[in-house]
Amino acid sequence: MKVLQVMCGAERGGAEEFFVRLAAAFVKTPICQKVVIRAYPDRVDELKAQGVEVELVPFGRRLDFRTPFTLRKIIREWEPDVVLSWMGRAAEVCSRSLKKGGPVHVGRLGGYYKLKYFKECDHLIGNTKGMVGYISKLGWPESATHYLPNFVSPKKSKGVDRATLATPQDVPLLLGLGRLHANKAFDVLLESLEMLPRHWLWIAGTGPEERSLRARAQELGIEKRVRFLGWRRDVASLLASADVLVCPSREEPLGNVIIESWAHEVPVVAAASAGPRELISHEKDGLLCKVDDPAALADAIIMAEGGMAVRLSVQGLQNYQENFSEEIVVKKYLQFFESVTR
């Protein structure tokens, strides 16, 4: 089985991180694989270190002739059985590069996107059941719509020394992970922190809202208890240091950070946007609260302590092991590839 993965994404992001994990996992299977990506050095180096064969293209716009030329050449000479497109731009370019009767073209959606760039795909993947329902409601055939979840690594790491981030050892520590974008609602998390005078907060991520978030922390008088960490690759270490993972998103199609927290046995509190609402069973493997409600978020954080924290961690780990481990998800992908190429 030959699979060509084509990723046109940003330098950093949840979908991009999962793409790297999935490509590395395929190396350990009978799949023969190539990936086509933009020339982001960290991603290129990580994939090559895992033994993944990499082709680089610019994924430019109107005057970019190199990308479609390179894709057509790879498809013609390598003859993949499946082309798996990540992001709309990749799906669009692949559709123009494929001939009828060629490989099966699969588009993967990591969000509630419009389908105009995916309309020439043979099959679509959604990484939540809600997303699969959304795709079907847009008129895509149910038989060509598939649910395949993400997985994360359970590999644990030594926690970050709180002293290196000027954080007391004896305070409850909250962790926020994600792009600093309005959709992630870190402003709501800051407002909830004002109501939690004992708690400290680490936020790991970069994005357009960083300056306004820093300013908001100062306005609230909590800047001494907040650390903006920038983009971090040591998520396992951050989780090992935290007492609670908080996902306050206004809009969250999936919530990879929730699955990561389960794998690392960290209690999760999340606003009940689409992804977290599907993933979490309230008071069983996580706590859900109203979207855009700082007081409700603060109450849930307080609730996620003591005996409740232990229960949430145990059930979260069980949910991860049963549904979101690498072994289980990769097996689903292999079965999917077999089914669509018969």
Strand percentage: 15-25%
One letter per element, helices H and strands E, the order comes to EHEHEHEHEEHEEHEHEHEHEHEHHH
- Using the alpha-carbon principal axes, give the shape: elongated
Q: Gyration radius, to the nearest Å?
A: 21 Å
Strand order of the largest sheet: 3-2-1-4-5-6-7
Structure classification: alpha/beta
Give a count of the beta strands, DSSP E runs of length 2 or more: 13
**Helix content range:** 40-55%
Q: How far do the termini sit from each other?
A: 11 Å
Low-confidence spans: none
Average of the residue pLDDT scores = 96
Main sheet specs: 7 strands, parallel
* Number of helical stretches of at least 4 residues: 13
Question: What does this 3D model show about the protein?
Answer:
By secondary structure, the chain is α/β, with parallel strands linked by helices. Helix content is 40%, strand content 18%. The protein has 13 helices and 13 strands. A 7-stranded parallel beta sheet has the order 3-2-1-4-5-6-7, with helices on both faces. The longest helix has 17 residues. The protein starts with a strand and ends with a helix. The relative contact order is 0.11.
